[in-house]
C-alpha cells in the first residue's frame, strides 16, 4: 500500500483511539446525580409526611422525645412523619488521623491506651468504618463529609484539586456546610487537602492552617503544627465544629510500614491528643455538649501504602466518644472489650463494620443537623441509645430513611417508584405484618422492586405506630434499617448506572482503531519472527486483562516475556552473523549483558499486590548502603555528563566549551537531587555532603529545580539551532542523507536522559546506567540482525528490522515501567517528583511532571528507539578502539570509511525499501498493541462490570490503560518520537 | 597454518538423528516418556511438600533413564567415525588444539571405541555416556543455573531449589545431545542458534526448555495453592515439555 494511505490509516487509528477512550470513560465512570442545595430540617422526615409545623430549628427542644416527637400526624403523603429527636451535642471535634487502621486503635499492640480505656468504660463507641476504594485522602474526605460514595471519576479530578473543578465541596451539602448554615463557626488544622476542598478564600473556616503532606519524611512537624493550636482552640468557645487532620502516622506508614519503629510512639502521641480533648470535654463547661470523633480516612497495607483495596487499606477505625455515652444503657450500645481481636476470618474487622458514609447521618442526628442531601449513610444504630426512650432512635432512623428515599426516587424516577410502592403495599398485606419481603408478592424483580418492598414495609410499620402507643420498636427499627441498608448497598453500587451503549461504542471504536493500525503496517505476510512474537504478546496481554490477579501482577508478564525475546534475538543474530567468531562472541556477550541488566532491574523495586513490601534493592539494600547508592548515582550523572560533552555538543561547540556546558548542566541537577532527597528521604542522605547542602540552603527547592529545567531547555534550544544551522544546506540535511557522527536525535537523547534522571526517585537513578548498557548491547544485537558489516552502507537509516525494534522497545518500556516501581494500583503513583519547580498549582505542568516521573523508563526507551533507527557512522573517531592492533586497524577503518563515503552519494539516491520508514512501522506496531490492549481492557471492564473487583482492579487498570495510550503512545511515541526522528533526519 | 582436522561428528549438522533401528531401541524410546512422567507423577506429592529433597532423590533415577535412553536408542558420536587423526599429529599443533580440546577428547574416546567395538559394543558406549553425564552435571547444570537466574529464578533465596531444578533441566536437555553431537563447537553453535533440525533428541531438549519457561505462568495467580511455589510448576512444565518435544520432534 502506498505510504500516504498507510499514513492516513495510522493517523485515523490514533484519532479513533482518543475518541474511544473518552466515549468509553463516559459510559464506564458514571457521573452521579447530585441533589443541589442544602437540606433543611423540615425535609427530614417532617416534610415528607407533609406536617411541617414542627419547629425547624434544633436546640429549641422538641419537648421530650415522645411528646411532640412521636405525636403522629397523618400526612398528606403516603407515609407517617414524626419529628427529629432533639440534638444531644452542639459541638463536634472531628479528629482525622491519616491512615489510622483499625488495629492501631483496637488491637493488642496499640498505642491508644487511653482510647481503649474509654471503650472499656463505655464512653467511647468503636467501629471499623469501611472505606471504599480509591483509598486516598481526597475521596475519603468527600465520603466523610458528604456521605456520598466518591466514584473513580473523582480520581480523574484528583489532580485538579485547585478548587474550580468539580472536586470542590464548598457548594455541596456537607455536615460542615450544615453547621455553617445554622450560624456555627468552623476551625480547621491539618492536611491542606481540606483547604482545597473547602476553599479558605470563601471564608469557609473561621480559622484554619493547612499542613502539606508533600514530604513524607516529615514525621513530627506536620503534627506539631496541628497540635500547637489545640489548647487555644479548646479554651475558646466560638466554634461549633473543629476539624483536625494529622498526617504523621500516614507518613510513617509510607516510609517504614505499619511495623516501623516510629509507629507506636506516634500512636501514643495521637492517644495523648484524644486524652487532652476528652479531659477538656469533661472539665470545661462550654465543652460539655461536645462529641469527639476519632476517624481514619483510610487504612494501609502491609507495605504502609494505600489507594487500592488490599487488606487493611479499606479498614480505618471510627470512634465516637463523649462522657454522655457512659450514661447510655448497656443494652443500647452493648459491652465492648478492649483491646480485642478482629472478627474471625478477617484481619482488620474489629467490632461492627459500618460504612464511612454512616458517619454523616449519625453526626447530623446527634447534633440536630439536617442530613446532607446526597448522603448514602445509615445512622449508626448503637448511637440511638443516647436519647432517652426507644422512640427517638426510631425517629432518627425514619428521618434518615426519608432522606435516603429522596435519592432513591431521583435515581429510579419519582412516579414509577411511588407506583411500585403502592402495589407492594397492596400485596405485602394490609397490616404490613409480612416479615419477608417476598411474602405474598413473589420474588422481587431487580433492585428497584426490592427497595419498594422494604420501603413499603417500613412505612407501613411506621404508620402502624399511630394505632398503638406501645410499639414494637425493635421490629420497626429493623424494618427501617432493612430499607436503609438495602438502599445504601444499591445506590453505592454503581453497576446500575453504567451506560452500556456508550461502552459498546467505545469498544467498537477501539476495534476499528486496531483494524486501521494493522492495515497501516507495510507487510503482514509472511510474518517475521518478531512479528509473530509481537502478535502473540499482544494476544496474551489481552487475555491477561480478564484475570484480576494478572492485572495486579502484570509485571510478571513482562519480566517473563523479555528474557525469552532477548534469547530469540541473540540466537537469530548469531545465526545470521556471517562474520568471524569474534562477532558471534560479541553478540552472545551483548545478549548476556541485556539479560543480566534485566535480571538486576526487576529486583530493583518490588511491585504488584501479592508480594507488596517484600525486600528489594531500593527498600532492602540502599537504606543500609546509602554510600553505594550515591556512588552509583554520581556515576550515572558523571557518565551522562561525559556523553553530553562528547556526544551532544560534539562538533557544535569547541571541546572546552562542551565540557563546561555539560558540567554546568549536570551540577545544578545533582545539587537539586541531593537537596530534594534530603527533604524527601533523609535516611538516604544521612551525613553526606553537608557543605553543599549548607551552601545551597538559601535557595528553595523550587528555584533549584527551575534552574535545572531552565538550563536544560536552554541547552536543548541551543543544540537544535546550532545542529540544524550547521547541517543546513549540506548533504547532511534531508531525508536519508549519509550517516553522520552524531544525529540531532542522539544529541537530544542525552539531554532528555538528564531531564528524566531529574524526574526519577534517587534510588532509581542507577537504573539509567543499566539502560545505557542495554542500549549499547541492543545496537549490537539489532545491527547484526539484518546485515553483516560488509553490507552496511552509509545510509542515515540503520539497517535494522523495524519489527524487532518495536518488539524490543515494547517489552523494555513495560519492564522499566514496573521495575521503577509502577503497578496497576493507584497506590503506586509516585507524586514526589510531580511538583518539581512549580510554585503555584498548575494542572498542565503538574500533569506533565507526574507523567514523566512515573513513565520515566518508557519515555527513555522511546528516545532510545529513535536513536537506534539511525546508523552509527564509524567508531574510529571515538577513540574507543582497543589499542591492540591499533594503528593498522585504524588505517583500515579510515580507508573503509573513505570508500563508503565515496559510495555514499550514488547509494543514497537508490531507495532501499528495507531501511525506510522505521519509525512509521514502529508507530504502527505500537498503535496496534495499544489498540489491542485497550480493546481487551474495555471488553474486560464491560464483561466483568459486576465483578467484585471492578472498582479495585479493573477500573484502575482502565485508568492506567488511558495513561499508556494517551501519554505514552500518542504523546511520547507518536509525538515526541516522531519529532526526534524528524530532527534526526534534519541534522 | 595447517587446518586442524575437524573431528567428524557422527551426523552432518543438517540431518536429523535417527534412532537405532533395533527392537530394544524402539521399545525403550517409547518407554522413556512413560518413565519420566510416571516418576514425576508418583513423586508429585512429595515434590510439593519438599521440593529440594525430592529433586535430589529423583535425580539419579532420571539420570539412569536418560543413560539407558542414550545407550539403547541413540547412535553415539563416535559410532560412525573413522578417525583420521594420527595420534602424533595433535602434538604438533598445540595452539589450535586448545579450541577444540573437548571435541577431541570425544574423538579420542571414539577412536578407542573403534578398536574395541567388535568386542563389546554396549560396553564401549559406557564411556561416552559417562562423559555425557559428567558434562551434564559439571557444565550444563551451572550454565542452566545461570540462565534460570537470568530468566527470573530467585536470586537471593531458594538456591538449592534452583540448583536442583537446573540439574533436572540439564538431565532432560543435554545428555543425549552430548551423546550424539559430542563437544564440537560448531555443532553446539548450531544447536544454540536453532539451526539443527528438530529431531527427537533436539526436540526433547527444546521442549524441556520451552516447557520450563511456560511452567512459570501459574506462579503469580492468586489461587493460593501449595503447588504454585517455586519450582514445582517449572519442573512439571519441563517434564511435560520434554515429552511433548520428543514426540513432536520424533513424529515430524
TrEMBL record, chain A:
Sequence ranges assigned to domain GPI ethanolamine phosphate transferase 2 C-terminal in this UniProt record: 495-985
InterPro entries: Alkaline_phosphatase_core_sf, Phosphodiest/P_Trfase, PIG-G_N, PIGG/GPI7, PIGG/GPI7_C
A Pfam family this chain is assigned to: Phosphodiest
Compartment annotation: Endoplasmic reticulum membrane
GO biological process, one term: GPI anchor biosynthetic process
Gene3D superfamilies in the record: Alkaline Phosphatase, subunit A
Membrane topology, from the record: Multi-pass membrane protein
Functional pathway: Glycolipid biosynthesis; glycosylphosphatidylinositol-anchor biosynthesis
Major subcellular location class: endoplasmic reticulum
Similarity section: Belongs to the PIGG/PIGN/PIGO family. PIGG subfamily.
Protein name according to UniProt: GPI ethanolamine phosphate transferase 2
Organism: Friedmanniomyces endolithicus
UniProtKB/TrEMBL annotation, chain B:
One BP annotation, GO: GPI anchor biosynthetic process
Ranges that cross the membrane: 26-44, 56-77, 129-151, 163-181, 201-221
This protein's record includes keyword Transmembrane helix: yes
Membrane topology note: Multi-pass membrane protein
Compartments it resides in: Endoplasmic reticulum membrane
Pfam families named among the record's database cross-references: PIG-F
GO terms under cellular component: endoplasmic reticulum membrane
Chief place of localization: endoplasmic reticulum
InterPro entries in the cross-refs: GPI_biosynthesis_protein_Pig-F
Pathway(s) annotated for this protein in UniProt: Glycolipid biosynthesis; glycosylphosphatidylinositol-anchor biosynthesis
Keyword line: Endoplasmic reticulum, GPI-anchor biosynthesis, Membrane, Transmembrane, Transmembrane helix
Protein name as catalogued: Glycosylphosphatidylinositol (GPI) anchor assembly protein
The organism of origin for this protein: Friedmanniomyces endolithicus
Gene label: GPI11_1
